[in-house]
Amino acid sequence: MTAPTNRLGPAGAALGQPKGPRALKRLGQPETPEQKRLMKAAKDFEAVMLGMVLKQMHQTSGADPLGGGAANQTWRDMLADERARSMAQGGGLGLADSIYQQLAQRV
């Protein structure tokens, strides 16, 4: 008996590429105005999620990138939001692409 190529075995060899009747058709880059709006919304959603993660990280890390103080909470949150937006626009975690692929097929 041979060992599977990954922890999911042969059935999961192409992880991220669904097989079978529920497989999603991979869409290309957004072309229509509606697709572009959908991609923007997906990236905005990913940025919000990343912002929540970064804010929680800053609260639990104990380190303050801006030096500390009560007034810096606002700046910390703004910094986390901006970092999250930048990460999402640069590709992020791939959440925006997955959301776009799922929703674009329903439009």
Structure commentary:
- The chain is an all-alpha fold and 107 residues long.
- The chain contains 3 helices and no strands.
- Helix 1 (33-61) crosses helix 2 (72-89) and helix 1 (33-61) packs antiparallel against helix 3 (95-104).
- The protein is elongated.
- Mean pLDDT is 74; it is low at 1-24.
What distance lies between the first and last C-alpha atoms, to the nearest angstrom?
46 Å
What is the global morphology?
elongated
Summarize the biggest pleated sheet.
Answer: none
Note the beta-strand portion. Answer: under 5%
Work out the helicity level: 40-55%
Low-confidence segments, ≥5 residues, pLDDT <50?
1-24
Q: Helix tally?
A: 3
Find the count of extended strands (DSSP E, 2+ residues): 0
Summarize the structure.
The chain is an all-alpha fold. Helix content is 53%, strand content 0%. Helix 1 (33-61) crosses helix 2 and helix 1 (33-61) packs antiparallel against helix 3.
Task: Give the SSE map.
Elements: H1 33-61, H2 72-89, H3 95-104
List keywords for this structure.
107 residues, mainly alpha
